[in-house]
Amino acid sequence: MKRNTPIMLAVLFVSSILFTNCKAQMTDDSLPGSRTVSVTGKAEKEVVPDIILFNITIKEYWKEEFEPGKKYDDYKTRVPMEKIEPQVLAQLKDLGVKDNQIKVLTVGHYRQTGKEALVHKTLQLTLNDFTVVDAISKQLSPRGVSAMNIAELKHSKMDDFEKEMKIAALKNAKEKAEYLVESLGEKLGSVLAIAEPQFGYANPVQLRERLTYAKSYDSGNSATEIRTIKIKYEINATFAIAK
Length: 243
What we know:
Layout: H1 5-29, E1 36-47, E2 51-59, E3 61-62, E4 78-79, H2 81-94, E5 102-110, E6 118-127, H3 130-139, E7 145-154, H4 158-182, E8 187-195, E9 200-202, H5 204-207, E10 229-242
Antiparallel strand pairs: 1-10, 2-6, 2-7, 3-4, 5-6, 8-10, 9-10
């Protein structure tokens, strides 16, 4: 009898494991959430930005560039930054841009073949209205201005929009789950899981080529065709199918 004891214990142990696994599987099948539907809810909104970062690049140039009949070899009279910058700032002030809305972003030099180095500087304006952007692009003198572009569009209430889009996306997920389940003659149960991806918005300046104005730009054009920020949000949700 003693020799058979280990064998009997092993048999009992294996039987216990099999019974436990079988019982767990039966329990899983009886869970209310075993019949589920998983969907992705989406929400989208376009808002007009109230923070516009607008860059203006100014540079030294040759006086002869704007004189009829002059060629590259004739460029000898440099117009310095000390003369160009005050003129640009004065024009901006006349267009309603305040000093605290302007900051120097970059300063550098560039050299043309056979000529002395010229200074260039990028000013960044923080604006709140596209009418000012349009006025600058149309009225700022092209002399000494090499480029203008919108660097970034933002909104001061982006946190509020984030919350709004999350709620809208979750509601959209529920609506989608309801009509899918009801099309099969079933009813939707309670939500079991919500997976929240990182919130984001599509910055139109990053997604599209920046609209840049060289000194030969058409003053009749508006500053940019980009007028809104498109905010998109997706959320994954799993719902029970009611029995």
